[in-house]
Amino acid sequence: MSQSLPIYLADEQATEALGGAVAVCVVPGLVIFLEGDLGAGKTTLVRGLLRALGDSGPVKSPTYTLVELHAISGLDLYHFDFYRFNEPEEFLDAGLEECFDKRHVCLVEWPQRAAAYLPAADLLIRLEISGEGRSATISALGEGGRQCLKRLTSAAGISSGLPPPA
HSE on the CB side for 88, CA within 13 Å? Predict the structure, then answer.
């Protein structure tokens, strides 16, 4: 059974701050799926996570490169974007399965486009446009995800938040 935490994000800075908060969860082997429409804030969230870990370099969506490696804080973080995949087998053709092991952290945008070949996620972060802001739902999909939600709610002080009244 999964546990979920809904959060309202008023603006881009709030989305980046949520990414920074998620950084408390980052451990080798963690797999995070990021879902949401174009422009929902997936890369912005990743930018916040990377900044919180000390990465000051550019953070761009790997839409054309498929993957960007960020070696930081003693970790190898792989940021994937499978938006351009037409078939799930493109994941295998690109040889990306070797990136998913217990030594690396994997952040995956558009995971549904390679779902047949991806390992199970520990955490799913679903971002949606909600009025002027965004809403995020963080779902724990396994023990690693449950531990992450526990750290988020205690160490990072994240709590459930609903959108403001219309």
Answer: 8
3.40.440.10, 3.30.1540.20, 3.50.50.100, 3.40.50.300: which CATH number matches 7-151?
3.40.50.300
**pTM across the whole model:** 0.89
Residue 75 has pLDDT above 60, yes or no: yes
Separation CA 91–CA 5 (nearest Å): 30
Distance between CA atoms of residues 165 and 162, nearest Å: 9
Q: Which residue type is seen at 146?
A: R
Q: 129-144 burial by CB neighbour count: b if 16+ within 10 A, else e?
A: ebeebbbbbbbbbeeb
